[in-house]
Each structure stands twice: as C-alpha cells, then as structure tokens.
Amino acid sequence: MRTLLAAFMMFTRLPLWRWVEVDKSYYKGILHYWCIVGFLTGTVTWGVLWLASQVLPLLPSCILAVAARLLLTGALHEDGLADFFDGFGGGHDRESRLRIMKDSHIGSYGVIGLIVYFMLYVSLLYSLPSGCLAASIIAADVLSKLITAAMIDTLPYARTEETSKTKVLYSRLNYIRFNLITAGCAAILFFIGASFWGLIPALAMSIGLRFYFKRKLNGYTGDCCGAAVLFTETAFYIGTLIACQL
C-alpha cells in the first residue's frame, strides 16, 4: 500500500505527504503502480476537457485539459522530454549526453521539442472522435506508463543512484505482481470501451526507444523514462486515430 502511495507522491503533485510519511525504500518499487497513476491523470485530463467543452470550443478545451495534467503532474515527464531533446540533440557521446540531461537549464533543442510535442498532443486530442475520446485519453495515459515500465526494466540505469536527480534507483519488476496489475488495467480499459489498436505503434515505439537508449547511453535515465512515456503515448494516439478513421 505504501509503495502505491509512493507512486502517487512521485508522479503527481497531490499533497499526500501531509497525511502519510513514506520511507525512501518504498519508492524503489513504484514502477509496478505507475500505470495506476495513469488512471488518475488520464481521468483528470478527460474530465477537464469535457467540462471546458460545455462552455468553450473544443480547441481551447483541449489546451485547458493539457494544462490541467501539467499542474497535476508538475510537468514531470515534459521536463524529462525537454532534457532528452537537449541531451540527444546536443550531445555527441554518452558522457556529454548524460551531462547535458543533468543540467537544469533548457536549451534550444528542448524548447523546440516541447513546442512540437504540445502542438501534436493538442491536435491529436482535437482530432479524436468524441465517442471514443474519454476511453482513448485514459487508455493512452495508462498503457504508455505500463509499456514504459516494462521497457526500462530490461535496461540498466545509466547513472549511479547518487548522481540521479531523484536519488532513487528503481528495483526490478516482480512480474507476478506486474502481470496481475496489467490484467486488472486491461480489464478496466476494456470495460470502459477503450480501443487497443493504438498498442501496435505504441509497442513499436517502445521497442525502438529501448534499442536507441541501449545504443546511445547503454541504459536509461529518469529523463529517458519521461520522454518514453510521452513518445509512447503519442504513438498510441496516432494509432487510435488511424483506426478510428478506417
């Protein structure tokens, strides 16, 4: 239970620390419950979009929904994405990429990458058919985190625990627990009518990123995790949108 609370405390800005204290050791296993956090962030994203669309056109409603998710998560993954673009855009070898990604300042690659990402994200939300919008948003959030957790479990950490930004090194997945959580998530998504066609490009994106991280860093970093979630989520949206139009 405390590991689940640790996952919500790590990946959202919910002030749970005011009521419960969680030891650092519990954060090592939070990848098991990352996808459960996705149900919260996905539901909030869709909820704000739906509420805003009752009084506003769809486009500004989509922008407000994205802003709500950023507030809820503290832009954690987007910060990782910006660092990823800076590190891999400006670095010429493993050491320089790791050094640039650790720098808290954002560079031109990060700025441009975030602009393109947010334009694409909002346009995909805007383009999805209204009938599958809620299920697609929740499924994209949940499954991107689920896939990324499984993907990074196959890679070593590229830094040491002492030099990581969060000072936490994730433990390897317990696949009995992880598979049970995966089955539960899949059942809930099926119940709410989510389409799983987006899984094909999402899995392809995850596999491609896995080999890219291995080749360029010989492992992953926290920034890679954030970037992988958003890349995989975007691929899921693209696959879902294509399936809806066929």
TrEMBL record:
Domain of life: Bacteria
Membrane-spanning residues: 31-52, 106-127, 178-200, 220-244
Keyword set, alphabetical order: Cell membrane, Cobalamin biosynthesis, Magnesium, Membrane, Transferase, Transmembrane, Transmembrane helix
EC code(s) of this entry: 2.7.8.26
UniProt catalytic activity: alpha-ribazole + adenosylcob(III)inamide-GDP = adenosylcob(III)alamin + GMP + H(+); alpha-ribazole 5'-phosphate + adenosylcob(III)inamide-GDP = adenosylcob(III)alamin 5'-phosphate + GMP + H(+)
Primary localization class, coarse: membrane
Compartments where found: Cell membrane
InterPro entries assigned: CobS (IPR003805)
GO molecular function, one term: adenosylcobinamide-GDP ribazoletransferase activity
Topological category with respect to the lipid bilayer: Multi-pass membrane protein
Matching Pfam families: CobS
Record pathway: Cofactor biosynthesis; adenosylcobalamin biosynthesis; adenosylcobalamin from cob(II)yrinate a,c-diamide: step 7/7
Gene Ontology cellular component list: plasma membrane
Cofactor dependency: Mg(2+)
A GO biological process held by the record: cobalamin biosynthetic process
Role noted for this protein: Joins adenosylcobinamide-GDP and alpha-ribazole to generate adenosylcobalamin (Ado-cobalamin). Also synthesizes adenosylcobalamin 5'-phosphate from adenosylcobinamide-GDP and alpha-ribazole 5'-phosphate.
Protein family per UniProt: Belongs to the CobS family.
NCBIfam families according to UniProt: cobS (TIGR00317)
Protein name: Adenosylcobinamide-GDP ribazoletransferase
Annotated source species: Candidatus Odoribacter faecigallinarum
Name of the encoding gene: cobS
